[in-house]
Structures are given as structure tokens and as C-alpha cells.
Amino acid sequence: MFERILCGVDGSAHALRAAETASALAARFGGRLTFLTVAKELQPSENVKRFLALEHLSGEPQYVLDEYTEAIIGKAKDVAEAAGLRGVRAEVRTGNPARSIVEYAERHKVDCIVLGSRGIGDIGGVLLGSVSFKVASLAKCTVVTVKPHD
Questions:
Q1: Which residue among 40, 78, 90, 118 has the highest number of C-beta atoms inside a 10 angstrom radius?
Q2: pLDDT score of 90 more than 70
Q3: What are the Cα distances from residue 101, in Å, to 6, 82, 108, 149?
Q4: Residue 6 dihedral angles phi and psi, to the nearest 5°
Q5: What is the pLDDT of residue 40?
Q6: Is the pLDDT score of 33 beyond 80?
Q7: Number of domains in the chain
Q8: Residue 65's pLDDT band (boundaries 50, 70, 90)?
Q9: Residue (of 116, 118, 113) closest to 138 by Cα position
């Protein structure tokens, strides 16, 4: 059912909850899970390039993991490992989050996108529409929007 699962993570509590849900779906359906975070464009140092290679993180060479992005991916991978998953991928992109998520999903034939209902851009989401709403509107695959526990 869900062979390729993409989970957008941005460091918010909602994104961590989405990582839990995506990990559970991947475990339940035997799917491949990829975490995607959208970062600002920077020039990577040689140390960062080595880190990307060692951690099996992929993406265009100009994308860099700053400490915050490393922490986002690290927490998401910890959630997946706690769910018993191995071989989880992480991708870093730059640009508009909703557009980047949808483009990645289409390019990689993703079956399901999992997102938190709100991310770190709550004020912008109120004014312009949330990333999860935009992705649900634009994506051609199933989109699961995860709300936090109350």
C-alpha cells in the first residue's frame, strides 16, 4: 500500500509527531521512509560534505546541514530507529517548503506524504496558508496530516 513514504520535518513538535506516524506506517506496511527538510542555501564546508557522506544523506551538493538541520534530522531518525526501522533516508532541499515536498514526492514516486498540521512557521501559516494545507492541495498522492495529542 505505502511503499515509499515521505515525511516532512522542520524541528517543530508537530513534525516529530509526524515522524512517529510515518515511522509506524513504514513499519506496518514495510515501506521505505525518507525524511525531508527544507533548509536555506549555503556553501558546504569540506567537514559538512564528509558528514553528509558518512550519514548517507543525499541532496544537491550546494545544500548544507547547519547544526539546526542536523538536529532536525537526528531527532527524526531517532524516532524511526525507536520504531525498529533501519535504512531510513534523509534529504535536504532548499526553497519553498510546500513546493519542495510536492516536487520531491512526484520525482521519487512517493505513495504517501506525512506532515505535521503546523510547523515552525505558524504565523506565516495563518497569513498565507500552512505548508500541510498547500501540500494536501497540490500533491498527487495520499497526504496524512498529523495533529498533536491533546
A1: 90
A2: yes
A3: 8, 25, 11, 24
A4: -115, 130
A5: 61
A6: yes
A7: 1
A8: low
A9: 113
Closest CA to 66 of 42, 35, 50: 42
Q: What CATH code is carried by the domain that includes residue 93?
A: 3.40.50.620
Please write down the HEC assignment for all residues of the chain: CCCEEEEECCCCHHHHHHHHHHHHHHHHHCCEEEEEEECCCCCCCHHHHHHHHHCCCECCCCCCCCHHHHHHHHHHHHHHHHCCCCCCEEEEECCCHHHHHHHHHHHCCCCEEEEECCCCCHHHHHHHCCHHHHHHHHCCCEEEEECCCC
Residues 6+ apart with CB under 8 A from 110: 4, 5, 6, 34, 104, 141
Q: Per the structure block, which three cell numbers stand in for 41? A: 542555501
CA distance readout (Å), 60 to 50, 71, 92:
14, 19, 8
- To the nearest 10°, the Cα dihedral for 71, 76, 82, 87? -110
62 and 41 in contact (C-beta within 8 Å)? yes
Domain assignment of residue 128, given as a range = 4-146
